[in-house]
Design a protein that fits this description.
By secondary structure, this protein is an alpha/beta fold. The protein has one domain: Rossmann fold (3-Layer(aba) Sandwich). The protein is built from 10 helices and 8 strands. Strand 3 and strand 4 form a beta hairpin. The mean pLDDT is about 90. It binds adenosine-5'-triphosphate and magnesium ion.
Length: about 260
Amino acid sequence: MKILICGKGGSGKSTLTSILARALNKNGKTVLVVDADESNLCLNRLLGARMPDVLMDAMGGRKGVKEKLNPPLPVQPEEAFLKDPLTLADIPEACLADANGVKLLVVGKIRAFGEGCACMIGNISKTVLNRLQTKPNEIVLIDAEAGLEHFGRRVDAGCDLILCVVDPTFESFTLVDSVQRMAESAGIEVAYVLNKVDDTVRQPMTERLDSRQVLTAIPKSEVLFTKSLNGDPLDVDFQEIQPICDFIERFEKPSVTFKIL
Ligand SMILES: Nc1ncnc2c1ncn2[C@@H]1O[C@H](COP(=O)(O)OP(=O)(O)OP(=O)(O)O)[C@@H](O)[C@H]1O
Ligand SMILES: [Mg+2]
């Protein structure tokens, strides 16, 4: 099952990705985290993993990606890791880092002035997620970039479920309307995770959303904040994560590949 985690900038997407990956792994799932955010640099630190080889580099950088995503037919066998369908076992070992059993794949990062836009990185994410087929016990968590760009790029089309992180800001509430609309037009179910919740904001936050779609409320946590300030792994367990694991358990089904490329 492939789950895209989205939300406004700073709402807690990477935090949720990290603590949910850890919880799912503890629940016996095989978990692959896909870092599809081209700008942020520290998801590996939050997971407690080293930085693996970046997929875009392994594909030969921008030039190599262009050729591999639009190869002259027939596709060469050495392009195996982009084959269709793609399984977790097809991902090159060097592009995977381990965090206590959770695997991390980093799609691409903007690293040099003037190197080009992030569309190519989005294109790799879209291609990989569309082709990736998961087995019943395998969960892929995609940490998306902030906002709605992933919808514009159709990255979500390769996913089974969208989890939208909502923090206590007006912008987050506003984003929810767009996420709902775009997820509906993509035909993908969306569920919401409230984040940074304390007693002051709990009621106004729950009033803003359809309670049937809200899976849980993660508390505002000094521990999470301090660990992320120091670049430490988020090796903490929150009981509020379990409702998300339970929902995923119920939702899980053989993944469907949408041919939209
Ligand atoms: N439940 C929480 N309690 C306290 N602080 C939190 C919580 N969740 C996230 N934070 C803090 O909020 C900040 C942003 O979190 P995070 O990096 O996970 O957001 P993001 O949505 O991934 O951001 P970006 O859009 O930049 O990728 C970090 O300082 C993080 O520690
Ligand atoms: Mg992030």
